[in-house]
Amino acid sequence: MDTSDNWAPNQYFPSWTDVKNKIDSNRPFTLAMLLGGTAIGRNSSYGNHVVACVGYKEDTETNQNFLILHDTWEPLQETYLAFGNWWGAMATWVRPQN
Asked: How many domains does the chain have?
């Protein structure tokens, strides 16, 4: 494999536009959170945890944006976390080889 084609770049503090572009291109990604907050319907915060971001939701009534996540804590359930509900975050965008 040619590693010169940076196929898994990391981005600290991803923007909402970047998230939407990746998801709309059918490219889920991993999100490593530092002091991640509490998702809707959960009793505890994510803290320092890595999740798969598989979608997003824009709530036009509240003007709030949410990430749709899959995690290892409840692997068969989607969770919704308000975008930016963390102290720090790093997205890993994976680009398949051509």
From this structure: 1
